[in-house]
């Protein structure tokens, strides 16, 4: 009826084909390929003929028709499409949506006024993602339409993280025991998979078999995402107790409203009761009965009371406007192509020669045309781009009513306030709960949607909510556990305000203060016996050597060496020691200068900036001179036996060298085990503690005597003669030359 209305509009108007009238023949395919091919062959035959003649060139062949509208189903379109494509006969379907029909090599003359199933399934995937339904079952009818739809859905769903718990095919006719067992197995698998959402891409007959048997067996209510073919089917919507199946959602192409169509149907069906109307139809028959056989006598007497109440209700409510408009638009596409081929103007179509189907086909490629208030265009695959409406079944009567709850035009937009859910709660269909922020999925089994949530460790983060592995941070970034991003590392070095540095500064001030105080005190008491007995400002090595010489060498040698060690030669030795030390330090700093190092690994949240020694061997050579002198000092004083009743100068030197060795021997394992961040502080601390140890063991006791025990600062306390007099046991203690 929609095609008849479109043809009458075109014939009664002058916009497309002025001065011309379109004719048509209608045939019922009965959804059978054999029945469909009979009129298809007749369309390609010449007028008055029942067969197609064989020619080497069909360029000038004039078949009975210029274009074919239909058929309705994709299975029939696959058959007729190949046949008409061989003759380059334009064919426009108003409902065949299989994606395979977009293949231009196989179907070069096929067009349709509905989008491909691939677009519809893209909308279905967007719907599942919007509600986080990633654990679903996918069922399809056991025919070409269902199998292809199931394959496309799987290819679209899997890359988007949607897991298909079960795939199944539903028989078209559940009449035999074997077919009933298949339906039972499908229902059992759906229940065992523990899914709440089922994508059902099937023909109405398969859905009828599935739902009728499922209602009898007590199928638990589910959310059914319907394909366009059965969403508005009377066969399904009028099924008894169909509301028990649960919630039904599906997409329908929008199209344009045809508000006058219900009135048009009622008016024309009312004419069937008039005998004169049927007589006029017989007089206007274009097809000879000898070609197509006897005309159906009941077809001309279909009246309103012959239509089902559901169909009348759907017509009045506009539930089928998408199918009606698609048929209406198919007629207008052929009329527009004929308009372009004949080069029609506002008053006439001037072409004089008959039009061939292939000429009409050339003008249909990428053609745009207008149907009501919509402008449509065939793309390079013969499809049109149309928006989808998301429909939901709402029960306001024994049969459901379709409510629009969203749209899809590449992006899904939902009207959540218009949706009706059981218990006002959106169903959840997930194998595993959503992971929290900072967690990734560790897959269990074969399905990526079944997983355990695992925290991201420090130094890594969750980049996307559906990640299966944590993403490591860059070398200049860090992150705590369970992070969704990384933070920049801050530079770490020994800054002035750190507690460690402040302690080192306090220790340095203490050492400098004690050293300066000792120096000042010694200078103030320069001529006192204690300062003179302590060697004044000579080095510890010279004092140790002097003590060793006095105690262990013969008297003649001892007097000569002591005079050298106490004379001007002592300052030369001090200067030489300073120059040697300076030379070693200069060689080390010029040949092996420390390098600035930026270490990204040693600290978890910061980047360490420190100076790294290039050669530990060279540093050891610098320090080995100190160690050798300290060892000689210790050896020279430790082996000396103090004389009774005389001040023991060797004792202070011995303890000073012990302090030196204890500190530096402890320094080596401490430096090896301490964190690299604090190694410079350990080195500085060792130097300061070494100086403090020498001060505390050698100089500070003498300062104590100078300040608080001045009665001991006398020659009698440090009484002694030459180096050998005490050893000889002289009771007089020697003459005054021993104190010089």
UniProtKB/TrEMBL annotation:
Segments crossing the lipid bilayer: 500-523, 569-589, 616-640, 652-672, 684-709
Keyword tags: Cell membrane, G-protein coupled receptor, Glycoprotein, Membrane, Receptor, Sensory transduction, Signal, Taste, Transducer, Transmembrane, Transmembrane helix
Domain G-protein coupled receptors family 3 profile: 572-716
Source organism, top-level taxon: Eukaryota
Keyword Cell inner membrane: no
PROSITE patterns per the UniProt record, alphabetical: G_PROTEIN_RECEP_F3_2, G_PROTEIN_RECEP_F3_4
Any GO BP annotation: sensory perception of umami taste
InterPro entries attached to this UniProt entry: ANF_lig-bd_rcpt, GPCR_3, GPCR_3_9-Cys_dom, GPCR_3_9-Cys_sf, GPCR_3_C, GPCR_3_Ca_sens_rcpt-rel, GPCR_3_CS, Peripla_BP_I
Bilayer topology term: Multi-pass membrane protein
Gene Ontology MF, one: sweet taste receptor activity
Subcellular location: Cell membrane
SUPFAM superfamilies per the UniProt record, alphabetical: Periplasmic binding protein-like I
Cellular-component GO terms for this entry: plasma membrane
Family annotation (PANTHER family): CALCIUM-SENSING RECEPTOR-RELATED, TASTE RECEPTOR TYPE 1 MEMBER 3
Subunit-structure text: Forms homodimers or heterodimers with TAS1R1 and TAS1R2.
Similarity section: Belongs to the G-protein coupled receptor 3 family. TAS1R subfamily.
Name by which UniProt lists this protein: Taste receptor type 1 member 3
Origin organism lineage: Eukaryota, Metazoa, Chordata, Craniata, Vertebrata
């Amino acid at each position: 009826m929609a095609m008849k209305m479109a043809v009458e509009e075109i014939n009664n108007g002058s916009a497309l084909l002025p001065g011309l009238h379109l004719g048509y023949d209608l045939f019922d395919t009965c959804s059978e390929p054999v029945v469909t091919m009979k009129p298809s062959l007749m369309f390609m035959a010449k007028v008055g003929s029942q067969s197609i003649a064989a020619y080497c060139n069909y360029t000038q062949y004039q078949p009975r028709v210029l274009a074919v509208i239909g058929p309705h189903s994709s299975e029939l379109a696959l058959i007729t499409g190949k046949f008409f494509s061989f003759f380059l006969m334009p064919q426009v379907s108003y409902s065949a949506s299989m994606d395979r029909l977009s293949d231009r090599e196989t179907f070069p003359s096929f067009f349709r006024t509905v989008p491909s199933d691939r677009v519809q399934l893209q909308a279905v995937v967007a719907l599942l993602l919007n509600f986080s339904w990633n654990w679903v079952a996918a069922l399809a009818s056991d025919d070409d339409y269902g199998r292809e739809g199931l394959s496309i859905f799987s290819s679209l769903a899997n890359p988007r993280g949607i897991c298909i718990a079960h795939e199944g095919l539903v028989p078209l006719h559940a009449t035999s025991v074997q077919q009933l067992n298949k339906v039972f197995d499908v229902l059992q698998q759906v229940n065992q998979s523990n899914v709440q959402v089922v994508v059902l891409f099937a023909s109405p007959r398969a859905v009828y078999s599935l739902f009728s048997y499922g209602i009898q067996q007590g199928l638990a209510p589910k959310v059914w995402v319907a394909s366009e073919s059965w969403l508005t089917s009377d066969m399904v919507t009028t099924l008894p107790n169909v509301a028990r199946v649960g919630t039904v959602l599906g997409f329908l192409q929008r199209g344009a409203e045809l508000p006058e169509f219900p009135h048009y149907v009622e008016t024309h069906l009312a004419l069937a009761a008039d005998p004169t109307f049927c007589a006029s139809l017989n007089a206007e028959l274009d097809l000879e009965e000898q070609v197509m056989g006897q005309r159906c006598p009941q077809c001309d007497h279909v009246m309103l009371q012959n239509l089902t109440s559901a169909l009348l209700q759907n017509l009045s409510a506009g539930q089928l406007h998408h199918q009606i408009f698609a048929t209406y638009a198919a007629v207008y596409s052929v009329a527009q192509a004929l308009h372009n081929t004949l080069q029609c103007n506002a008053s006439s179509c001037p072409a004089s020669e008959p039009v061939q189907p292939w000429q009409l086909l050339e003008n249909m490629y990428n053609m745009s045309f207008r149907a009501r208030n919509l402008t449509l265009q065939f793309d390079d695959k013969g499809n049109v781009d149309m928006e989808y409406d998301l429909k939901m079944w709402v029960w306001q009567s024994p049969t459901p009513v379709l409510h629009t709850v969203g749209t899809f035009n590449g992006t899904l937009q939902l009207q959540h306030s218009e949706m009706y859910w059981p218990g006002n709660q959106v169903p959840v269909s997930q194998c595993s709960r959503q992971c929290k922020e900072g967690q990734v999925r560790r897959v269990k089994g074969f399905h990526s949607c079944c997983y355990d949530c695992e925290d991201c460790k420090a130094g890594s983060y969750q980049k996307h909510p559906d990640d299966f592995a944590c993403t490591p941070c860059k070398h200049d970034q860090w992150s705590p556990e369970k992070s969704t991003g990384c933070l920049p590392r801050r530079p770490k070095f020994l800054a002035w305000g750190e507690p460690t540095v402040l302690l080192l500064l306090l220790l340095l001030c203490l050492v400098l203060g004690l050293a300066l105080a000792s120096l000042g005190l010694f200078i103030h008491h320069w001529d006192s016996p204690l300062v003179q007995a302590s060697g004044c400002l000579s080095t510890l090595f010279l004092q140790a050597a002097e003590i060793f010489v006095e105690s262990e060498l013969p008297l003649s040698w001892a007097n000569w060496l002591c005079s050298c060690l106490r004379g001007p030669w002592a300052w030369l030795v001090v200067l030489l020691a300073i120059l040697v030390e300076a030379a070693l330090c200069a060689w080390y700093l010029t040949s092996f200068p420390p390098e600035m190092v930026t270490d990204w690994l040693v600290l978890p949240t910061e980047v360490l900036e420190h100076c790294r020694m290039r050669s530990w061997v060279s540093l050891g050579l610098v320090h080995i001179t100190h160690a050798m002198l300290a060892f000689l000092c210790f050896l020279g004083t430790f082996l000396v036996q103090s004389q009774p009743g005389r001040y023991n100068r060797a004792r202070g030197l011995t303890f000073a060298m012990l302090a030196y060795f204890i500190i530096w021997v402890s320094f080596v394992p401490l430096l090896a085990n301490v964190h690299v961040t604090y190694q410079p502080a350990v080195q500085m601390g060792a130097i300061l503690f070494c100086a403090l140890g020498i001060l505390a063991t050698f100089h500070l006791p003498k300062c104590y005597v100078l300040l608080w025990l001045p009665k001991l600062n006398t020659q009698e306390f440090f009484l002694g003669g030459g180096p050998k007099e005490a050893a000889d046991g002289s009771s007089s203690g020697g003459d005054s030359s021993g104190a010089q």
